[in-house]
């Protein structure tokens, strides 16, 4: 699985490098860990933190107004409210915008304060303010929680994208989250 993810990240990098040759030098840096859980015979156990790669494409790619950009399969999203970086240094984006960009059916339950994202064999559920998400009914602890801001539901982009088997990269100079659903 790690080899597949690494190959997908490399392919995304090469496509981006060819598509954006004037954006500058690329270097790899390490972000903070993501907590994960997995089932065991006696309940849930926490696995060691997983290191994720960040890929920098160059400062000239930065959005003109300095805001965070979300790029899904090469298309820049334009949600009605801007994504932001939360107190856990994670990018939060409007749920419906990112879910629909990934081709998912999205649903909001006001009574439960829960978002649900469905596509093919994946169902991802998140509760506002809860750092546990459910992927096909299996819990996974993440290091930040979905939240309501500006009357919109914001979710951690990486958590949803990786739950749907997508690869995710962060470009610090361009303030961009790059999501690739290749092979999804």
Name the poorly predicted regions.
Answer: 17-62
What's the tally of helices?
Answer: 3
Globally, the shape reads globular
Rounded radius of gyration (Å): 16 Å
Compute the average pLDDT: 76
Secondary-structure element pattern, one letter each? HEEEEEEEEHEEEEEEEHEE
Structural class: alpha+beta
Q: Strand share of the residues?
A: 35-45%
* Total strand segments: 17
Characterization of this structure:
The chain is of the alpha+beta class. It has one domain: 2-Layer Sandwich (Copper Amine Oxidase, Chain A, domain 1), CATH 3.30.457. Helices cover 17% and strands 41% of the residues. It contains three helices and 17 strands. A five-stranded antiparallel β-sheet has the order 9-10-11-12-13, covered by helices on one side. A four-stranded mixed β-sheet has the order 6-5-17-16, with helices on both faces. A four-stranded antiparallel β-sheet has the order 7-8-15-14. Strand 10 and strand 11 form a beta hairpin. The longest helix is centred in the first third of the chain and has 18 residues. The relative contact order is 0.21. About 25% of the residues have low confidence.
